[in-house]
TrEMBL record:
UniProt membrane topology term: Multi-pass membrane protein
UniProt lineage: Bacteria, Bacillati, Candidatus Dormiibacterota, Candidatus Dormibacteria, Candidatus Aeolococcales
Location in the cell: Cell membrane
Keywords annotated in UniProt: Cell membrane, Membrane, Transmembrane, Transmembrane helix
InterPro entries tied to this protein: Poly_Biosynth_Transport
Domain of life per record: Bacteria
Transmembrane segments: 12-32, 53-76, 88-107, 119-141, 147-165, 186-212, 224-244, 264-285, 305-328, 335-357, 363-381
Record keyword Membrane present: yes
Protein's recorded name: Polysaccharide biosynthesis protein
Species annotation: Candidatus Amunia macphersoniae
GO cellular component, one term: plasma membrane
Amino acid sequence: MTARALGPERYAPLATFWSLLFVAGPGFFVPLEQEVGRALAARRARGDGGRPLVLRAAAVGGALAVCLIIATVPAAGPLARRLFAGDSLLVVALMAGLAVYALHFLSRGTLSGNGRFRLYGFLIGIEGVLRLVFCVALAVAGVKAPGMFGLSLVLGSLLAIALVLRGRRGLLIPGPPARWSELSSALGYLLAASVCVQLLLSVGPVAVQLLATATQRAAAGQFLTARVIAFMPIFLFQAVQAPLLPKLSGLLAAGRRDDFRRMVLRLLAGVVLLGACAVTATALAGPWASRLLFGSGYSVTSFDFGILSASCVTFMVAQVLTSVLIAFRCYARMATGWLIGAVVFVGVTAAGTQLFVRVELGLLGGSVGSALVMACLLGGVTRRHTTPTDAPTSEATSRPRTA
């Protein structure tokens, strides 16, 4: 809808804004959601109220959001010029989005930790509906300013929070004081890994916009629409991935090593097999699907679709290995894998010349690098591991948020 309403050139800065917000927002605040949900659930099981914990988490999330916004202020000019085609309203939307995302993911963690899963799903659903309604209204009104669409996306999230939480009782029950350790001693590793995960997942259009010449002003929008199609398997993978970590942790805790190994190998084989089919289908049908969904101005080549799809498959392999390492409580090894993948992405992209191909190969190289590093680190763990006494429940980096 938005891509057709704005056209390729005007859509490019909005695509860049959305990708950048998705790197920073979910990247920094998803671990907070998951740790709040885990800690609140543990308190509920003990019969303790969670208000002190939520307030402490709110302080962490608020401080992080303020730091990110402060860091954005001096970069506002360069951001507007280099990434947003001079639209300073998108910079305002970015800063507002950081604050709203902090509240959004804290709210999600509070809902899940209190067992309010119906409200959790309602929050996600109404957020999407409100964004769609606002974008349709702007398109019907003939608005052509990308910044207005950016603000509408942020406003949709804020209103969804207000509608879902208004008048809800029992979410902030008084309880014993919360210690910092309740939010997890591994939060730093989870945060670093989460940012790198979202970087490899969403940074492509930002890199394209930075590297594009004056004659390639529509490139970021074209790249984002191609990435949306090529990364469709990620959405399907979420259904498999959601119960994966609890299942793996349970097998380890029960000492069922053979079942654990068979489950991981079957899942990896399935991802590779289905991924090969997805790469072939996307390379063949991707250009046609792009023209059908977004219009003729957004089409890219079959070669581009093939590389993007391959990067999606290797990204899913890395996600499986992430769940395995978290099940073993090897947070540092997991974070190291994603950090090296991010470094590989930067290096490969910087070394290339052709705009789309250099970014696509960077994404592919980053995902392959992360998967290989985690596979190597996992080998050492499985040889010497002893069954953990306390299986983790955090899924901060094993469930990436897709734009």
